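S1.2 Input.
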Amino acid sequence: MSRPVGLVFVLVAAVFAGCLQDSDPLDGLRAAFGDAAIDPNNHTVTAHVLEGQLQGGAEWTKSTNVSVDVPKITIPKSDPGPQGGGGTTQALEIPSSSQTVSVRFVQAGKLAGYDAAWGTTRDPKSLPDWSSPQDATQSFSASVSGPGPVFVAAQFIKDGKVVATVVQPYVAIVSVHWTIESAVRPMRAQDPAPPPDNYDAMSDKFTIDLDSANVTVLAETKYRGTYVPSSGTDVDLEVDPPGGKTVCSGTGGASSPAPVDPEQSKEKVLISGLNAGSLRILVGAGDEAKCATTFFYNNAGMVPYTLDVTLSY
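S1.3 Output.
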């Protein structure tokens, strides 16, 4: 008995349609990036699949570390005289210069049929606000500013549904560096002891507003220039972290006659894991209450110093 040809065609078409319906939407990603790049359990792309450029054409592979040097700051001072002093307060601004992120998929040509929604984020565990979906074979551009790591994220979209996500480090602006030239004249005789708050007028204060946590600060001082006998040489360094304990560095000390060793200006403080908030760096006379010690200074004149501050993210 013969079988109707039309019925056979319908059966074959139904089976073919069923195969299309059951096809894995990740298959195209596997073809583009390889099986090992796809985690089928949580639909994430785990391999390095993005490539792109920084503004100015610098190529990158996984991440590029960028250091920002702020122009040198010079603070002119006049000698306050034998009573000491000369302290000022100044805010140090973190540069807000931006970089342009331009990215695409390494195997973009093999992603026909997929759309992609893009975004940038500072935290790889926090997904960004997504752009409107676009053809996954096309590139994506965005502007990022300020220090800290930047991650590029993308969602692969197939037939209107998100089928996989990738988050990859793009660029880390890892350090900001300031050089400050100034002078101050701490004066404290051993007897009688000065008032507890006397240090404030004899110290330069520098403040930095940190808008993110887990920052490392390195502050270092040294004598500026060639020693002049009419100059003082003794300053100390203090760093007040946001919500944390003050860290002090104090070497040398008062002597009679006045100290003449420029090495007394060489101080260093390193603190890691800073919280967000206001960071203060003090150069001059140490705060006895915060530093839990007693300082004496007998400077013959202003102490010219250089302060180097580096924030690392």
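S1.4 Remarks. The chain is about 10% helix and 45% strand.
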